[in-house]
Amino acid sequence: MSKADIVFVGAGNLATNLAKALYRNGFRILQVYSRTELSARTLAEAIQADYTTRLHELSVNASLYIVSLTDSAFVELLPEIIAGKEHALWVHTAGSIPISVWEGYAKRYGVLYPLQTFSKQREVDFRNIPLFIEAANERDTKYLQSLAAILSGKVYEANSEQRKNLHLAAVFACNFVNHLYALSAGLLEKYHLPFDVLLPLIDETARKVHELSPKCA
After folding, report:
1. Which residues span the domain enclosing 197?
2. Tell me, what's the pLDDT at 62?
3. Does residue 214 fall inside a structural domain?
C-alpha cells in the first residue's frame, strides 16, 4: 500500500501513541493539531512534524486525517475541521461515536479504533493491540485494513453498533477496575500499608483470565 501523508487532529494519549506507531512504520506525519501548544509541540517534535493550535491553519495537503479528540470536542469542531479538505479520507478513533457522524461533512470517511488504554508517558506495542475498522466504501475499508495490518496482527471489521458495545465492555474491564484500584489504594494508605503489596494478586488475577473464563477465574 502507498503510505499516506497524515495530519493528526488531537495530541492526547491515544493520538500520541498512534502517531508514534505510524511514524515508526514509515508514515509521514505532516502536522499535529491541539488546542494546547505544549501537547502539539511535544508530539510534533517526536515525529518530525509541524504543529498548530489553530484549526484554520490545518494543512490541506494530507490524504489522511486522523481525528482523536474528546467526544464533545469532536462533534463541536467537526464542520470547522473538515472545511476545505473534503477530498481526503477522514478517520476518527472513538469507540462510542458512530461512523454516521461524518455524513454531510466528508465524502470519504471511516473509523480506526484501537482497543487499549493509552498514556503519553508509556508507549505500547501496537503489534498485539486489536484494531477495529469501519469505512463508508469498499476501497477505503481495504485501505484501512492494510494500514491497520502494518501496525497490528489483530485487525477486525466492526460496525458502529458492535464498536459501541465493545467500548462499553472495555469500560467495564478497564476503567471500573482502575477505579477499584484507587479505592484499594486509599484504604491501604489509611492504614499505612503500601499499594504494591497488592500487585502480585492483581497480576495473577489478570493472568488467570488468559487461561480461564472470567466466571471461572
Report:
1. 163-208
2. 97
3. no
